[in-house]
Design goal:
The structure holds two protein chains of two kinds.
Chain A: H1 9-21, H2 35-43, H3 49-52, H4 64-69, E1 92-95, E2 100-102, H5 103-108, E3 112-117, H6 123-131, H7 134-145, E4 149-155, H8 166-175, E5 182-184, H9 189-193, E6 198-199, E7 202-205, E8 211-215, H10 231-240, E9 255-256
Parallel strand pairs in A: 3-4, 4-5
Antiparallel strand pairs in A: 1-2, 1-5, 3-7, 6-9, 7-8
Helix pairs in contact in A: 1-2
Chain B: H1 2-24, E1 30-32, E2 55-61, E3 65-66, E4 70-80, E5 85-87, E6 99-103, E7 109-110, E8 119-123, E9 127-133, E10 135-144, E11 152-164, E12 168-181, H2 197-205, E13 209-210, E14 219-222, E15 226-230, E16 236-241, H3 251-254, E17 256-257, E18 261-265, H4 271-276, E19 279-287, E20 295-302
Parallel strand pairs in B: 1-6, 3-12, 13-20
Antiparallel strand pairs in B: 2-4, 4-10, 5-9, 6-11, 7-10, 8-9, 11-12, 14-15, 15-18, 16-17, 16-19, 19-20
Classes of the chains: A alpha+beta, B mainly beta.
Chain lengths: 259, 308
Amino acid sequence: MCCVSHIGLPLVAGLAVAVGAFGLASTQPEPTAQPAASACCSTGAAVAAAECCGGCKTGEGECTAETAKGPVEDPVPEAGSAKIGEMAPDFALIDLNGERHQLSEYTAEGKIVVLEWFNPECPFVVKQYERFSTMPDTYNTLTEEHDNIVWLAINSGRDGHATADHDFNAEAVEKWEIKYPVLMDPTGIVGQAYSALRTPHMYVIAEDGTLIFAGAIDNNPSPRVAGDVNYVLQAVAQHFAGETITEPEVAAYGCGVKY
Amino acid sequence: MAVRHGMVTRGLAASTLGSALGSALGSALVSALASGALAAPGAEAQPGRGRPEPSKVRLVAEGGSLRPGEMNYLGLLFEMDEGWHIYWAGVNDSGLAPSAAWTSPPGVEVGAIQWPAPHRYIAPGGILDHIYEGSALLLVPVYVPEDLVGQTLTFGAEVDWLVCKDSCIPGYANVRLTVRVGEMGLTEGEAEATEFAEAFEAARSRLPDPYVESDSLVKIRVTRGAVEIDAPGARTVSYYPQSEASRAENLLQRGQSGEQRLRLTLSPFDRSALAKDPVIRFVVEAEYPGEESPVLVLVERPLSELGG
């Protein structure tokens, strides 16, 4: 057994402490050296080596050899477990290109993670990509201003639903020139963990793994009218400024997720 | 007269409801535009028709003419293909309620939409919405001053809506209705009924009455954090939250019961919605065995009236 089957709280807490110890990681990220993961994996001091594997990158620390031997088991987030101000439930999903993304690996690297529940067929999603380019604009603004932003779109449409079809989603990525990965969640386990009800439904997870925002991208629910408050930009800006997030949770609008 | 009195009472109550809702939902749920600014000349004397399939909307009148000096009702009549639904203006997990921006004739005021009580609809994944299926007529109160006797008036509305089945389609339509103002003293019964009279009746039968404790079979207790509903003898009791302040925990399981009572813990989370509309507002429906019509009541309690 290489790694723990569930990346449980001890690891998350360990990483949070590690990230905390390297508090500047968020403003001065070094993509090649992730303090949290490296510290954990190479020393194995505070946390057993086996528990580190999920957070290690190939070639790092003691876990490497073991990691290579078998597949990493995915965390199993609990339904409804995402709460504002608490650790965001860890998950791992495969994107349209077959690449695996695990939340805790990103936060361990000091990334702020934006989640966007996605369904290219939903008129409210179409609104934010076609009629207005709210999603790409928000992504561009965040990544231009900060170099530790990770944006993950997630489609929790059930397996076999037309809107969760691989090619249908891949076509949307191409058509809308989406620069971030689209993760498929065919069992809906991640969507249910985050209580994602709608598309789009947005979440922001801070570098320490805390969920700091959940809700709509903006303040106008009409498919034809753009909002004038972008809640994701607002939350991230307030987070970076060290301010209290004034609207950490707003009602999302859009289509229902096709669980 | 009794009927008309009832209508007027409802009109006033629901008008308050509608304006509060408008602010609750932020973007122009209903905006009664200044008189005639956008009125198109030479309007067609037939209901406007909107796309897209699988739903359409029309602006219709209850009677063949409007009654001067009275509150009249127009209707936004939505007709949907089988299996498709539109949304009630309340707390929903998905979707979007229809909205209308009005163009009204000079001197005529168009009031806020009155929403018939919805039905609960649960989609896979435990997504709970409050919806209308088949057809829905949203009542639109219109006060016609006496001095407009004999005139012909044109009403217009830009209507936005969302219709969903397994997927959703946004609708947009510019609807219009031209209707004559009848003579003074014409009673409701004498005004020539249109083919839509039945749809108006059906909509009215689903309009909640303002809750008056002493008059109601249903006992409702509201505090800042909880709503308790007791409906002795009822077959089912349902809670339809209409404002952010009335959002309740675990609505999927707790919002409807066959136990003659509901106990709800309020759990609003959207601070801006709460600030815009700090009122606990919900509809309760109680169905009784052997009774064709359910009891439908609307409860509105400003948070400021409730102790901390």
